[in-house]
Design brief:
The chain contains ten helices and eight strands. It has two domains: 189 residues, no CATH class; 47 residues, no CATH class. The C terminus is likely disordered. Strand 4 and strand 5 form a beta hairpin. The strands form two sheets. A six-stranded mixed sheet has the order 1-4-5-6-8-7. It has a two-stranded antiparallel sheet with strand order 2-3. With 313 residues, it is an alpha+beta fold. Helix 1 packs antiparallel against helix 2 and helix 5 crosses helix 7. Helices cover 33% and strands 20% of the residues. The longest helix has 20 residues. The structure holds iron/sulfur cluster (SF4).
Length: 313
């Protein structure tokens, strides 16, 4: 679903006819399932994606700017905000995250969009408001692209197990205020981007902090984030980074999640006071550099407008 959604929101095809775009989305789902050896799920996934399109068109009121963007932000020293935080060996501390989708609306407001696959329940509103990962992504983007301001976060929850309410794919009658990629407010432009004066003036003063729309198994929650809220996320990361780099004690935290953990055997060996090295050597291997750098849609190389090429180029 995540790979298919990356294709669905790919900026370069956003203005294409829906049928054409949808054929690429279906192909992406096929490729992804084939890679995972899960083609038996293709029928279900395919019909869900058809319905997703029918529902999304009623709530998508933005244009995509970037998908799957890796963002790296230099963490600032909370005591001296003008300086970057460093580890005891002098390396800079960098917060890295991946943003599923950066979108811009008709009023030139930028949003960090997160795709969240759910089963059975929507996330409680308190949890969405306190979503530190989404907030940190806003902060990191602003650090990486100086001058850009994030308006907030959009939580795109998708109930993948909710097959009971799958309608036919012609239910999209109430289309949202769509934003074309080629329009002045669309995503087809370089970033960072100035906000148009006319769009700034058109923003209403009494905007709600939270807007929520539900369409079938999709729930879209848009939360405005204040400047102070986003800055606080950066400070929280810095405080945690200081603790991680200066007191690097890491303890195991057993719990229900251990049932699905791949490291259960060596972990149990350590709990029993045995050396886990033999188990690690026989049952595990290190990722090769090639695996780590496997190309994917939306992957950024480097910006021609932002300095030099990568070191090994
Ligand atoms: S089994 Fe896995 S998840 Fe559980 S404590 Fe050990 S390493 Fe952590």
């Amino acid at each position: 679903m995540t790979d298919a959604l990356a294709v669905y929101y790919y900026p370069g095809t956003w203005d294409w006819q829906r049928d054409l775009r949808q054929s690429l989305v279906q192909k992406a789902a096929y490729r992804s399932l084939a890679d995972a050896g899960a083609l038996r799920e293709l029928g279900r996934c395919s019909s869900f994606l058809t319905c997703y399109d029918a529902w999304a068109v009623t709530v998508d009121d933005f244009a995509p700017v970037k998908i799957g963007q890796d963002v790296s932000a230099l963490v600032r020293d909370p005591d001296e905000p003008e300086r970057g935080l460093t580890t005891p060996d002098g390396s800079g501390v960098v917060y890295a995250c991946r943003v599923d989708l950066l979108a811009v609306d008709a009023r030139d407001e930028y949003w960090v969009v997160r795709h969240e696959l759910r089963s059975e329940h929507w996330r409680p509103m308190t949890e969405l408001l306190l979503d530190e990962e989404a907030l940190a992504a806003c902060w990191a983007w602003q650090q990486d692209y100086i001058g850009m301001e994030m308006a907030g976060t959009i939580h795109n929850e998708i109930r993948v197990d909710d097959t009971r309410s799958l309608p036919a794919d012609d239910t999209a009658t109430d289309a949202a205020e769509s934003v074309a990629q080629h329009s002045a407010s669309g995503g087809g432009r370089s970033i960072p981007q100035h906000v148009r004066i006319s769009a700034l003036a058109a923003r209403p003063d009494d905007r709600d902090r939270i807007e929520q729309r539900t369409a079938g198994p999709i729930r879209r929650t848009r939360i405005r984030r204040s400047r102070a809220e986003i800055a606080a996320a950066g400070r929280a990361i810095a405080v945690e980074a200081i603790e991680m780099t200066r007191s690097p004690a890491v303890y195991p935290s057993p719990g229900e999640h251990c049932v699905e953990c791949e490291f259960t055997k060596p972990c149990q060996a350590m709990f029993e006071g045995a050396d886990p090295e033999a188990l690690l050597a026989s049952g595990f291997r290190r990722h090769s550099a090639g695996e780590r750098n496997r190309p994917r849609l939306g992957q950024a190389t480097w910006g021609f407008g932002r300095g030099a090429a990568p070191p090994n180029w």
